[in-house]
From TrEMBL:
Pfam families: EAL, PAS_4
Classification via InterPro entries: Cyclic-di-GMP_PDE-like, EAL_dom, EAL_sf, PAS, PAS-like_dom_sf, PAS_4
Name of the protein: EAL domain-containing protein
CDD domains found in the cross-reference section: EAL (cd01948), PAS (cd00130)
Matching PROSITE patterns: EAL (PS50883)
Organism: Craurococcus roseus
Amino acid sequence: MADGGDGLHTGPGGPLGRASADRERFLAFALTAADMLLEVSPEGRIEFAAGAFRSRLGEPPEAWLGRPAESVVSLPDRAAFDGAFSTLLARDRLPPTPFRLPDAAGTPVSVAGLRLPAAHGAAGRFCLTVSSLPRQPVRAAHPALAGGDAVRDAALRLAGGGADALSFIEVTGPDGRPPEAGPVAALVDRALSAGLGAGCVAGELSAGRYGIVSQSPADDLADLAARIEDAARGAGLDAAVEARSVPLRAEGLTPVQRTRALRYALDAFARGGYPAVEAAGFAAGLSGFVERACSRADALHRAIAGKRFGLAFQPIVRMEDGAVEHYEALLRPDPEVAAEFGTPGDFVALAETLAMSEKLDWAVVEAASAAARRGRGARIAANLSGLSLQSPAFRARLLRLLDGEPMLASRLMAEITETAEIEDEEEAVRTIAALRERGMELCIDDFGAGAAAFRYLRAFRVDMVKIDGCYLRDATRSEQDRGILASMVGLIRTVGARIVSERIETQAEAELVRGLGADLGQGWLYGRPGALP
């Protein structure tokens, strides 16, 4: 143990004296190479803690019992930690992987893991070791500027805990549009990495649009924007920078409601910049959004009840021969509804935020079922929100449909979306099991887009997993990103699911994912969304 400052502690199961000599030797051996040792349940909860917790993280080991294992790493790294823990569950081993501690300095550490042997009385549990690392190599691997997914995950984690503000920075070029990746983007990356404290999480949500998350409002936000503009001007670049914060305090909102509202704000900014945030009412914070959303609720309800939308169908093909496997049904609001509520993503997000996702999902199921009946053998995948999957009432209604029309289960599929995180996994598991019993195939959509997807892979038995298209885009740019995509393919293989790669636009991309082992592909190379053939 690094400093000998902390002893060993056990959880509710009893004192260490009850452990066997073999277990004591096992712990002593583990701690010779690590600062901290954790015993973690398959659900990711800390059940045993030992080592230098007090000196490293300010609390004794027993204070960490029952907490999520991800809490021992910094907020920006927790999405990556969830993915690493999924690898441990699937393969029984996690090689040393760099992370940072959740201390003020962001201390670099290496985390490794192994399934505990049954001889230690801990079958089904996992050992995690946390060891110090030199600072510079890890900082190079984990820069202060995180990815957009890390910003979203950090914001949603803080939403239920009383975070004060979410800050936005929007950069536009001389034409008023966000600049593409290039000198301006690199300049902003450097400025944010250098100008924000260790407790902040910052990253690009979309081209030229950045989010900043911290426990309190970002200090000197206007000064930071001015420095970015000055640096751009000094480099001979023409860029305007606007920075604003959204207060997150709102009386009467539950943590779940805060989380959904905050997710909506992040997605609105990524799609339409600060004007979209203002249009949603967020200029006055979460309270302003709630007021604006309530005024739109009736109109949204009428649009869903009146089925004022259509479905566009995009083919998903077999990579081996290009034959169509099935079609994904994509929601398309009619023009008048789109003018009121924005893009299909905005429409769906608002329905989830206002607790109307079950109504919307049922309307989509009915429309997809009608298309499957007239589609001459076509199989159709409908997107279902996690909020609907965890609803016993929605499950009962869907099962009545399938039981009354048994052939429909083989023609209808479900893609589980992560736009709203599932809160009651036990109910969702019941729904998935009941659908599979009736012959319906299920797919996890946009795998890797958020931390919850890794948890879904552990919890849900599905037939297919669709990898988020950003991983393919990145894999075409570097060998390292290609390795990440290959690891995801291998992880999905371990649970026995088929792999779908989305956003394939070129033959080179198709060859890449085929070589990595993808079973199915989707993207403009194979067909754009349109009418069902």
